Amino acid sequence: MDKIPILRMGAFLLVTIQVDLYDRLALNLESDLVNMVNKTSAKGVLIDISAVSIVDSFMGRIIGNIASMSKILDAETVVVGMQPAVAITLIELGLPLKGVHTALDMEKGMSLLKSMMDSDDPDEQETADDTITE
Amino acid sequence: MILMSKKLPMILSLSKDPVQVRQEQDVVFLKNRVKEVAVRIKMGLVNQTRLITAASELVRNMMRYGNGGVCLIEVVSSGRINGVRLTFTDKGPGIPDIAAAMRDGFSTGKSLGLGLPGTKRLVNEFDIKSKVGEGTTVTIIKWANG
């Protein structure tokens, strides 16, 4: 059975998907990753999909699930490296991946995660205020 | 009375390649075959992605609701343009209400209900026929630069 490796780097978990996902593999990744977040108390999950050429509604849902499951375990998810054709297809399909943070590449994703960790409670209060005044 | 002057161009089938889909490994094989054919007719990358994503949605439906089936991969031409036609045929339970199944957000399973309506948005031609108790046939065409 194929398995997608999950690497730990400090407070973050790194996943690089190098093969085209099929349903079973995506489901396994979902549960492995959520278990890892719990086991390692990771604060962030970085998923690199630069080698993935197809994301259909099922895969999109899995990515969204990973993000929301990690969120309630207090970890943020950033998806990096999406191919432009995949972005076009996802939107046309009707799957805007709401609630999933994205970045263009690994480096930008990493700094996004770090900035999200740095912004502790006071900042969160601030952004909450912003949305209220709006 | 208004005359319908819209001319329907003849669609010729240039090659036929049926692929049986019974288990998950077949899905990967099917996607690769579709990709090969799309590349052969010089379809652009974005359209290839749309076509393979559409195929991925339909083949999942066929596996989940129709216990697998056959996908016929064809290169078709209409005038000077080439395209890929995929025909998914299963002998599953059929869809009682096609109009509902084509609506965004409708699902009898526990999915998002984007499969059929989303697929329709990704391709140029979309046709679905279903008979309860006999099965479902979905046909899509993606033109190389459509």
Automatic annotation (TrEMBL), chain A:
Gene3D superfamilies: STAS domain. Residues 118-134 have a biased composition (Acidic residues). Residues 1-113 form the STAS domain. InterPro entries: Bact_StressResp_Reg, STAS_dom, STAS_dom_sf. Residues 115-134 are annotated as: Disordered. This is RsbT antagonist protein RsbS.
TrEMBL record, chain B:
It comes from the Bacteria. Keywords: Kinase, Transferase. The keyword Kinase applies. The keyword Nucleus does not apply. Residues 46-146 form the Histidine kinase/HSP90-like ATPase domain. It holds the Pfam family HATPase_c. This is Serine/threonine-protein kinase RsbT. The lineage of its organism: Bacteria, Pseudomonadati, Bacteroidota, Sphingobacteriia, Sphingobacteriales.
